[in-house]
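Morning, I've got a small favour to ask if you have a moment. It would help a lot if you went through both lines with me. Thanks so much in advance, here it is.

***
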Amino acid sequence: MVRKIQKRQKRLLVAIVAIAFVAVAFGGASSLMTQKSPAVKARAAYASPATVDLGWAEGFVIFAETGVSTTSGTAVTGDIGVYSYPLSSITGFSETLDGSGTFATSAMVTGKIYAADMTSPTPETLLGAKSAMETAFTDAAGRAADATELYAGNIGGQTFTTGVYKWTSGVTIPTSITISGSSTDVFIFQIAGTLTVSSSVSVTLSGAVAKNIFWQVSGSVTLGSSSVFNGVILCQTLIALETGATLNGRALAQTAVTLQSNPVTEPEHVVIIIPEFGTLMIPVIGIMGAAMIVVARRRREET
């Protein structure tokens, strides 16, 4: 009789523990399901290319070789740098040189401003960023294209998934476009001519992130007034942001960058938080403890 009771208790304990693990597993799966984006993603036609390494240039939200200018109303989040020209080539920011002589500050910039005539190690840092920017431009331009000359360069209204896209002339965006993918997908747009974004047009992200989108442009780049643009611009000439245009990304120009009352923000890094194993085991331990208490009570009752 005692053996039968013990076997029954063991079966009861095993059943409770099994239910505990199923509950935790179901809860984890349910949690993952609720974290999925409700947006419908376009199916990727191409494999994601490797990212473009920005090297030292990644330390700047705006970097130019000849100058950066702005009107009032601009708000920059991130550092600004000009490689080969003095602080006077950065205009409109009402900047103040720090006592160390290595950087300047401005009420319009949440970050620091660097120029070629500042105290060491600033000139060396700027040289490294210039070299890295040009290397990144060459890298992006040299990637094998997955698709060429799409929509004859007029890409308004289109959705792009991960891949490398190439045009041998200019590209215009007269109506809003969507860049769709995951936070790890990489997008490279190779443009041999100019890139022109019309006023009030948006480059919208659906799952993709700005830091993984690279616009390699051999001609000039113009972001129309009140437009919204996402991605890293690697430009061989001028990057011009017209009044009220928003840039979420980086403006890296081999000549100059001009601003007119623009919000410019460096891209955020995506942080994925994974619960520790110990955290996941807390409900299991709790249920197992409760099961042991139940078994102990039954033993006392049966004796």
About this structure: The longest helix spans residues 2-35.
